[in-house]
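The methods section describes the discrete structure representation at length, but only in general terms. An entry of this sort, consisting of the sequence and the corresponding backbone structure tokens, reads as follows.
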Amino acid sequence: MEARTLSKEKFILEGLNCASCANKIEKQVGELAEVKGSKMNFAMKTLEVEISGDIDKVATKIAKLVDEIEPGVKAKIQGQSSKNEKTLVLQGLGCADCAAKIERKLNKLEEISQAQLNFAAQKLKIKVHYSSQLESAVIETKRIIQQVEPGVGVEEEISGSHDHSNSHSHGDNGNLKAEFIRLGIGSIFFIAALLLKLNLWGELALYGIAYVTIGGKVLARSAKNISRGQIFDENFLMSVATIGAFAIKEFPEGVAVMLFYEVGELFQDIAVNRSRRSIKSLMDIRPDYANLKFDGEVKKVDPNQVEVGDIIVVRPGEKVPLDGEVIEGESMVDTSALTGESVPRKVKEGEELLSGFINKEGLLIVKVSSNFGESTVNKILELVENAASEKAPTENFITKFARYYTPVVVFSALALALLPPLFITDASFSDWLYRALVFLVVSCPCALVVSIPLGFFGGIGAASKRGVLVKGGNYLEALNSVKTVVMDKTGTLTEGTFKVTDVISAEGIDQEELLEIAAKAESNSNHPIAKSILEAYDGEIDNSQFSNYQEIAGHGLKVIVDDKEVLAGNHKLMEREEIEYIMPDKAGTVVHVAVSNKYLGYILISDSIKGDAKEAIKGLRELGIEQIVMLTGDNDRVAKSVADNLGLDDYRAELLPQDKVSEVEKLLTNEDDKLIFVGDGINDAPVLARADIGVAMGGLGSDAAIEAADVVLMKDKPSNLVDAINVAKFTRSVVWQNIIFALGIKGIVLLLGALGLANMWFAVFADVGVALLAVLNAMRITRLKV
């Protein structure tokens, strides 16, 4: 019998915040028969597992086990999700209630682990348990879409391609002109019936023609949906209400209500699609072509056809199509599409150029460093578009609310029609039936289901326009509850560009010699402090003289130079090696140097505070942030100087990376109040993952930043955090305006309808009119100025 090979897989545990649960997960996963070992990294929210057998099946077992131990936590294999998922573009999907039905039906399928329908972007992402199920799942998905909303176009999204086309129609791909002609013809018959003096049958004929012409499509959709068991939708409600009006001989009102409804739906669809376009225009940074240079010729090609190492030409006025290095030329580039920064940036030979920049002046020859799928512009677009799939709690609540709201109102309408005539003396059945019909018209929840996703999507788009990438509506909403902000120092509150400001040598050694020894010791390090020492030293360094290079985390380094042991680091390194040292009286980062256990002196290195750091702290205070804390690995003297200068509430100094995680955990005291950690997105990855909201500074083009953080501040400015919270607060304000407005109007009309004080005109306004106004209100978010 052959031994089964082991496969090592790393699982990402999304939403894991409980350390005790993490230990349980590690233990119970390790006890599975197919698992030979499991190792949990709680700070990074990862689980490394050695699997024997079918990876897909074991992954499903692990995902279920994780969900049982910590409900809501999702376990997925790192880097394998693309094999198990597919994105579909739904062209012509204008009904938000139908979108919710499609999503619900798909999530009930056994082979689908998750279905997320982004109504604002008209995209559906489906994930299956096993990659072998993907093809059949896509076929079944298309069938369900056509069943729920016939006529919606379904296309599979091609990697690296984004189709932004939109259809105006609600479940129909016809053009606006045809719709207006149809409604116009129906309106002529309706006006004729109103003006002409006819008998009952003549009126019925004219009103009937007008009604069928205007509402025929609604009636047909209603009949189809009923045959499929889909009863409680807007087509059914409007059909019953208007047919009921005809039954009680209210012909003019039946036709007028259907006309108002269809015109309102048409304008609502136009408004929704205009909102979609305005949101997407905020991210209209995708290049259409690249000028590929090959064999001395320049040819215009699709960016997807360009490979790493190819040479492209970027002319003045053109978008940079792919990331690369400038190998020839010099120019000013507009970076505002990616960073929101209005001031152009100068680039020259040897510098990095990112896709999405716009070349303003000179001709640039660029060597491509990443293909289009991995380019900065593509990652940013995918991040923003996929962000709307991560629904905020308010969105989830409204989706559930709408699911039960309509049936409750429908059955209330039925009771309103039948019970009063039975129990109230002289009650007219036709009168109470009319009141019930008003109830039916009001019951559609489209105003909420349409406007709220558009609101959050608009908020994410508005934030991206300002150089702030928010990874989901859930994080955008969470920004409203932030009470504590924890910040890293270097590269976050300070520039992160160190300079040697003082060299203090011990007796018997001059400053130049001390600087030379320190430079030699630091020559193999990539740390910013090491680079600053090397910049201060002008001489050449022969690396062949070095051996046994060793970095000591949180202390410094040890290396053999010319057969002598050199120590360079902070005071903890000196204390560890039992070497007496001088403590400087100036603020700054100190590098103590010792050779063969003899102290030679220290080098003082300073880092300047960012220009907008004070403005950021002031802005956070004005937004109601109660506590601002700084965490740093730097010495206490430097930390205190920065904290006092900026007016911070507290600081913690001389911390190792794992110490930052424990300090953040101490500050996570209240589940309702959110904590933000702001760091550089690479060195601070563990604490970014541990915070309620991780914010990466200067994450432009950094894979580590985008992976670890929930929010990325692309301008490298702490004041952008204030912008992000302002966008979040404005988005929440608009969303709640829509909720209160829609529910308020519907509630008032329902009450007036029950009392017989509201007719169907009021009811249609409470349905279509309110939805239209809510969508227009949501569009304000895209025009927000902060």
